[in-house]
């Protein structure tokens, strides 16, 4: 099996954005509202067949959040958010877990809704880029996750069936999309992230990438 990793929140810690939202809105918790708006924006774009690069959508979500709170968001603030997104730190469990998986012979793929240039910068800054065999962006096909073309894109890159992929993410919507495309799924229950088992049950689940990786090593053979 080939392991495929979501990037933002799954590998990289968006909690590092909290000081920005505290400064702009006076409340760090607004970060969650902004991210939910961003998710809604790219899913709407996907359903409507209207693609815009991730950075544009991130800025739009910030402007929308500002309007709801009566806060005017300047171009400089929008640029500051994008800069911070590209320099997020990795969750502490990520580097050792990826190193263990590589040592066991697994092929590792990063798959992001961000642009390729942005994710390459993100993973290099977090010192994770060397852990991956390939880094892929949906920007190449102009179709966001959780749409099925995103997961087929990874399968096509490796010239395998989607049944040979394990999608690993901290987002239920990502895993539901991957499962619908034929992939196996692994859920990392980062802080605040949940999946309703009455609606969807991932193949593997843990509250850390370390624990999830050990389950995969026990259950899944590398290709």
Automatic annotation (TrEMBL):
It comes from Chromohalobacter sarecensis. It is an enzyme of class 3 (hydrolase). The keyword Lyase does not apply. Keywords: Hydrolase. It comes from the Bacteria. InterPro entries: 2-HAD (IPR006328), HAD-like_sf (IPR036412), HAD-SF_hydro_IA (IPR006439), HAD_sf (IPR023214), PGP-like_dom2 (IPR023198), S-2-haloacid_dehalogenase (IPR051540). Pfam families: Hydrolase. This is (S)-2-haloacid dehalogenase. Its EC number is 3.8.1.2. Catalyzes the hydrolytic dehalogenation of small (S)-2-haloalkanoic acids to yield the corresponding (R)-2-hydroxyalkanoic acids. Belongs to the HAD-like hydrolase superfamily. S-2-haloalkanoic acid dehalogenase family. It catalyses: an (S)-2-haloacid + H2O = a (2R)-2-hydroxycarboxylate + a halide anion + H(+). Gene3D superfamilies: HAD superfamily/HAD-like, Putative phosphatase, domain 2. CDD domains: HAD_L2-DEX (cd02588).
């Amino acid at each position: 099996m080939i392991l495929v990793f979501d990037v933002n929140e799954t590998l990289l810690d968006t909690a590092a954005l909290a000081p920005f939202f505290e400064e702009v809105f006076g409340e760090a918790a607004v970060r969650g509202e902004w991210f939910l708006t961003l998710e809604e924006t790219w899913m709407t774009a996907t359903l409507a067949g209207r693609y815009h690069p991730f950075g544009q959508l991130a800025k739009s979500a910030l402007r929308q959040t500002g309007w709801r709170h009566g806060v005017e968001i300047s171009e400089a603030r929008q640029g500051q958010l994008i800069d911070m997104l590209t320099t997020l730190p990795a969750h502490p469990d990520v580097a050792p877990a990826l190193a263990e998986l590589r040592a066991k012979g697994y092929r590792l793929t990063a798959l992001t809704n961000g642009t390729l240039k942005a994710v390459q910068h993100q993973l290099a800054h977090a010192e994770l880029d060397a852990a991956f065999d390939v880094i892929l962006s949906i920007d190449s096909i102009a179709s966001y996750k959780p749409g099925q073309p995103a997961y087929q894109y990874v399968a096509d890159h490796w010239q395998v069936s989607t049944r040979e992929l394990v999608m690993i993410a901290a987002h239920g919507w990502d895993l539901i999309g991957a499962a619908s495309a034929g992939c196996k799924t692994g859920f990392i229950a980062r802080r605040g992230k949940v999946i309703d088992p009455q609606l969807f049950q991932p193949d593997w689940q843990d509250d850390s990438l370390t624990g999830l990786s050990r389950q995969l090593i026990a259950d899944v053979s590398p290709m």
